[in-house]
Structure formats: C-alpha cells, structure tokens
Write a structure and sequence with these properties.
two-stranded parallel sheet, 13 strands, Rossmann fold, 16% strand, alpha/beta, 331 residues
Length: 331
C-alpha cells in the first residue's frame, strides 16, 4: 500500500518504467572489491555507469575505463547529487566495512555508513531516481538463534558496523514508504572472490588465510575455529544486485538475505584452502575478537522467490578461483 505522503498513483506509473538496456546507473563504492565487479557486469549489460568512490579502500585500477569515476566521499551531498542526476538505479555499496574497525572507531563508521546512506537516499529522492539497491549485511542479526536465519528473525547487531547497516535498512524502508523512490536492501553474507585483497588493514578471513598459506606461514584463527560462516562468491552477489534492480515494484522497502545457505567453519575453510593450495593448513589459535559471532547461515528462499535469484558458484569452486587470482599475482 502507498505510504504516508506518497501519491496513490505513483506505484502504477513507475512500475511501468522497466529496467532496460542502456540506462544510467550509479555505483557508490564502485572502486571496491564488490562494487568494481558490479560495475563490470553493468557495463557488459550495456548500461552507462557512474562510480562514486573516495578511494580510501577502493582502487582506481579496479574501475573499468568505460565507467566514469568521481573521487569523492559518499558523505558529500553535493557530489552525490551531481552524480545521481538522470540516474535510473543507484547501487549503494560505499561503506566503511569490518566489525573490528567499527569497534575501534564507531563515529567514522556511523558517518560513512549511516549518514552516507541518508545522503544517497535524499539525493535519489530529489533526482527522481527509480530505485536504490542498498548493500546491507548479515551483521544486523548479531548472534541469531534461528539457523538458517530468515529475514523475519529479530535483529540484534553486536557491533557499530551492524548497527549502521541496520540503520541504513530502516532509512531505506522509510524512504520507500514516504517518498517516490523504491528501495531494496540486500543482506550480504561473507562475500569473497578476486580483488579482495589480503594486504588491507581489516582484510577478511579468506584473503588472510590464503595469503598466509601461499607465503608458507600458519594462518591465525581467532577463537576455536568452529565458528561458521555462509561464504558467498562475489559473482553471486553481483547477480543479486542486478536482480534487485529489475524486480517488480512490490519488492520496494523489503530486505533480502543473499547467500548460498550453506555453513562452513573456519576449520572447514582452512581445509579447503589447503586442498586448493597444496599446503598444510594447520593454524595458530588466538583469543576470540570482540563483536564476532559464532554461527552465521542464511535462509535465502525469499530472494530466490521474489528476485528470481539463485547462487551459482559453489564454495570449493569459489576458493579455487580466488587462489588462482592470488597466484596470478593480482592480489
């Protein structure tokens, strides 16, 4: 039903504006790991792609030549407004990631993730953008007691990062109810793949483990290694974003889990990396980190039904592809 303040005829008009060939799109965070893969896919699909990235964690070389890169912060309302003009869909991936970073610096996390999201939504509303696809996170659940976890489970984030992503989801829902802009929030679960670098300050677990093994070192496991994650290959995340852009207007304001729905412990991960590298994967154990959760596994049936999305890349295949990328010297 139309929300407070929305023209009652708006859904009917805008739902006829279909996602087609050659439309203008904006990818915030498009120089980053996930964002740059999305840019490549959108260009391949024939769209005109603009990228906003402050290059604090993204890399200029990740951005394809056919995309137009603007180096600015997602907090910069003027820069965002200029880029969102005449844009059909905004894919909002710009964020300060990593739970440990948010624990160390909650204010910066909030400014970029919460204020930045509100800046993007406001600019999209003012520009008449059809849809904003927001990159959220499984961290909004905290330590969910229902496994696999559906979107109906109460959210209880355990880190400032998780709080900031949940705030972004709520802003998306409210904007979809109050204003003529559609929103879709996608909860990513432990994304991995090429361009995910092991040398960043807050590198994710797969790059850290893989680079250690290839360097002849023992990976460090925080905790007992039995904590589990629903690892998702980056091309499946890209496909979910494209599906969210083209789904019917009825999905506006909704949130969707995006993951295979399979759980692997860190010890499972090490074993898979050992097989892919041919290296002994015996770890060194250290104390568990604040804000980490023990088990994470998605029920992604809602996305599969409403977005017509299916994961395509298995855990083992994704690991093999990532190791191949590292061995090519790209990492």
């Amino acid at each position: 039903m139309p929300g407070c303040g929305r023209d009652p005829g708006w859904y009917g008009r805008r739902s006829l504006q279909l996602w087609g060939d050659g439309v203008n799109v904006l990818v915030t965070g498009g120089a980053g790991f996930i964002g740059s893969h999305l840019v490549d896919r959108l260009l391949a699909d024939g769209h005109a792609v603009r990228v906003l990235d402050d290059l604090s964690t993204g890399r200029r070389e990740n951005v394809a030549d056919d995309a137009v890169l603007s180096v600015a912060s997602v907090e910069d309302a003027g820069a965002v407004a200029a880029l969102v003009d005449d844009v059909e869909v905004v894919f909002h991936l710009a964020a300060l990631g990593a739970v440990p970073r948010s624990v160390a610096d909650p204010l910066s996390t909030d400014r970029v993730n919460t204020h930045g999201t509100l800046t993007v939504l406001t600019a999209a509303r003012d520009a008449g953008t059809r849809r904003v696809v927001f990159a959220s996170s499984s961290s909004v659940y905290g330590g969910a007691t229902v496994i696999p976890t559906p979107e109906t489970v109460p959210t209880r984030p355990r880190s400032p990062y998780g709080v900031s992503k949940l705030a972004g989801e709520w802003y998306c829902r409210v904007f979809a109810e109050l204003f003529p802009v559609e929103t879709v929030s996608l909860r990513f679960f432990n994304v991995f793949g090429p361009r995910q670098r092991p040398d960043s300050t807050y590198a994710a677990v797969i790059p850290l483990f893989a680079s250690a093994l290839l360097a002849g070192e023992q990976p460090m496991v925080f905790g007992d290694g039995l904590q589990s994650r629903d690892f998702t290959y980056v091309s499946d995340i890209v496909a979910a974003n494209v599906a969210a852009a083209s789904a019917p207007a009825e999905v506006s304001g909704e949130v969707f889990n995006v993951a295979p729905g399979t759980s692997h412990t860190l010890l499972d991960l090490l074993a898979a990396l050992g097989r892919a590298t041919g290296v002994d994967a015996t770890p060194v154990f250290a104390e568990a980190r604040a804000g980490d959760i023990h088990q994470s596994c998605a029920d992604a049936s809602k996305a599969m039904a409403a977005l017509d999305w299916q994961p395509q890349v298995s855990f083992e295949t994704g690991i093999e592809r990532y190791i191949e990328w590292l061995r090519d010297g790209s990492g």
